[in-house]
Design brief:
single chain; 4 helices; disordered C terminus; Nucleotidyltransferase, domain 5; two-stranded parallel ribbon; mainly alpha; about 10% strand
């Protein structure tokens, strides 16, 4: 139905997984979705959202609370963890977002293709 990707900056893997979940939930809400089937390659996110694991980290608690609040807005939701190898589309979207960000940063600095942020060695 839709593909969404956004550069998130520097995050832990778990923070990025929650941010991706929130991004997807907001898009589903925008599209007026009612029945959601969510696939994640993070067993931790699945178990925390389903209430099987407690959320201990303060930063994750905030993201978890936002996700649970959004999930309650949908009549039917199923979240399931799948092997990373079966989640290649999500990896592709994440890589596209990173590449777009890097391209914008490179163009913003007026650098030519192939340059990087490393300083020359003396």
């Amino acid at each position: 139905m839709a593909e969404v990707s956004r550069y998130l900056g520097y995050r832990t893997n778990n923070e990025a997984e929650y941010e991706a979940l929130l991004l997807g939930l907001r898009e589903a809400k925008r599209l007026r979705g009612e029945s959601l089937r969510i696939y994640t390659d993070s067993e931790l996110i699945e178990k925390q959202v389903n209430g099987e694991y407690r959320v201990k980290e303060a930063r994750l608690k905030r993201l978890h609370q936002k996700a649970v609040k959004l999930l309650r807005e949908f009549p039917r939701v199923q979240i399931e963890s799948i092997p990373r190898g079966k989640n290649k589309e999500a990896d592709l979207l994440a890589n596209r977002a990173i590449e777009r960000r890097l391209l914008r940063e490179t163009k913003g600095r007026g650098e030519s293709k192939g340059s990087d942020d490393r300083s020359p060695t003396p």
